[in-house]
Amino acid sequence: MRYSIAEIAAAIGAEAVGDVTLTVTGAAEPAAAGPDELALAMTPAYGAALREGRALAAVVWPGADWRDLGLRGAILVPRGRLAMARLSAYLDVGQVWPAGVHASAVVDPSVRLGGGVSVGPCAVIGAQAEIGEGVRIAEHVSVAAGAVIGAGVTLLAGVRIGRRVRIGAGTLVHPNAVIGADGFSFVTERPSHVETARRELGEGIVPEAGTDATWHRIHSLGSVVIGENVEIGALTAIDAGTIRPTVVGQGTKIDNLVHIGHNCVIGKDCLIAGQSGIAGSVRIGDRTVLGGKAGVGDNLTIGADAVIGGACNIMANVPAGRVMMAMPAMPIGQQVESYKALRRLPRIIRDITAGDKAVSKRTTSD
Predict the structure, then answer these.
(1) Is residue 364 scored above 60 in pLDDT?
(2) Most-buried pick from 5, 11, 193, 277 (CB within 10 A)?
């Protein structure tokens, strides 16, 4: 399929200049782009690479001298990454979803299927589940009893949806994510060492040998509620709540390999990057961002619009709007000062050593 520069510009809400009748088959990086491809050079940093390629048209920054860059046409975008989001959505033809239920799928007779649903090979849908209009369920997906899947939801290969989970319209769940497994919650007959350690700051008495250390499971009765237009990455796990549901607010985007513990409440439009781990009963405000490998201790609150840097370990509540980085996490200003002090340490040590030598020489000469 070919797209004209004018068509692409209209689709992404940008200005087209030059020969807008030029057509392309897709997009490419500037240096690798051929005559039939649209080069993506959204900032001046890509100018040199654009000259290396053979593209006749490109997406460029405002004010770019596109003719001097060897182009016959261009699309001007003031915000490159936003343009990338719109362009990639426009060019992505997506997966073909056959209508209806595949012959190998197992769908309980009590399931309510909306119109235009696609259910792939070897999928399983349990009793009393509700599947909204236009839902797309890929191969080997399982939807447990009583789950409610909103209109336009896409569940990709191998996704597991637990019992009574509710997923809002337009949500996308990537392969092998698990939503609604039991939370990690256990208790012993008598208070264990780990139970008393926090309260006593590690000074608790270790139970005597022979004390019953059996862990008794606290079952999860609360399930999970996912808002509309959420994205959940591959191999991510969101545990069911103990009594009330674990909640993920609308518009939140969750990367691959993220774990969200039982009873958590995640706000709207949050970003949670890969390998982040959020312990049980955490509350995270709207629009908060967690960098990759961020960790959040249990029963903590992170306010709205907070930014948690990659690999941060959050061990105390974080106020709204606070930017945290380092490990252990601390306010960004404090962390920068600490980092500067760390960088100055070698010089300080040299100065102290030189001063000691000078004192030593004076003492010897005296």
Answers:
(1) no
(2) 5
- DSSP summary character for residue 78: S
pLDDT at 131 over 90: yes
Edge-to-edge strand list for the sheet holding 57-60: 15-18, 73-76, 57-60, 37-41, 26-28
CATH topology of domain 3-91: 3.40.1390
Scan for tokens 């000469």, then name that residue: 365
Q: Which residue has the tokens 């992404």?
A: 12
Q: Contact 139/156 with Cβ under 8 angstroms?
A: no
99 phi and psi, to 5 degrees? -70, 150
What residues contact residue 123 under an 8 Å CB cut-off, 6+ apart? 102, 105, 106, 107, 137, 138, 139, 140, 141, 142, 143
Number of neighbouring beta carbons within 10 Å of residue 348: 10
Q: Where are the alpha helices (DSSP H) in the chain?
A: 5-12, 47-52, 80-91, 193-197, 332-365
| Per-residue model confidence as pLDDT tens digits over 265-320 | 999 999 999 999 999 999 999 999 999 999 999 999 999 999 999 999 998 999 99
Cα separation, 160 vs 130, whole angstroms? 15
Let me know: does 191 contact 172? Beta carbons within 8 Å: no
pLDDT at 86: 97
Answer yes or no: are the C-beta atoms of 237 and 220 closer than 8 Å. no
Nearest-CA neighbor of 265 among 236, 288, 231, 235?
Answer: 288
Asked if pLDDT for residue 200 goes beyond 90, the answer is no
| Residues labelled as active-site residues | 262
Of the candidates 295, 166, 274, the residue with the CA atom closest to the CA atom of residue 284:
295
**Residue in 220, 222, 212, 225 with CA at minimum distance from that of residue 167:** 225
Given this model, what pLDDT does residue 299 score? 97
